[in-house]
Amino acid sequence: MHVCKKFAREKKLEILKLRRLPSVKVRRDVEITVEVVDNIVRKALGFHSTLQAEDGFWPGDYGGPLFLLPGLNEDGGWGIHIEGHSTMLGTVLSYAALRLMGEEINGGDGTMVNARNWILNHGGATSTPSWGKLWLSVTVTYPFFFFL
Q1: What are phi and psi of 42, to 5 degrees?
Q2: Where does residue 108 fall: left (phi above 0), alpha (psi -120 to 50 degrees), or beta otherwise?
Q3: Is 56 within the bounds of a domain?
């Protein structure tokens, strides 16, 4: 059984409380009022809050950095997809994600060193396309690039 389902079953009482809210069926021929939207949002937030643990996290299966490592190419970079050749966008975003997850700059099996070298040898992180710069700015890593 999936971890979230198991957790939800343990918190079944809280889920049952959500059933007290009126049922909502949205159809094209029915006007959507503020009350309808309010009920939908309350049910959604209520359901997801039942999945949240007491200390604030949502339990689930997460492999952390192991999710990114299989896509690493021999040259030290990552592509846009798992079988793709290394690109600045794929490498910078994967490198940033690993750093944000706690990977050390020079730690581990050399993955971070090789990725950083790939980035620097191909023009640096500022050479990533605008989409990559946007995501780096959202994570507050652009324009500082402290992770290199």
Answers
A1: -60, -40
A2: left
A3: no
Low-confidence ranges of the chain (pLDDT < 50): 146
Task: Indicate the SS3 state at residue 99.
Answer: helix
Q: Model pTM greater than 0.90?
A: no
- Domain region containing 9: 3-51
Q: What percent of the chain has pLDDT over 90?
A: 23
- From the centroid of its chain, how far is CA 18? 28
Give a yes or no: residue 84 inside a domain.
yes
Peptide bond connecting 143 to the previous residue in cis, omega within 30 degrees of 0: yes
Render pLDDT for 74-91 as a digit per residue (tens, 0 to 9): 999 999 888 889 999 999
Which DSSP helix (H) or strand (E) runs through 9?
Answer: helix 3-10
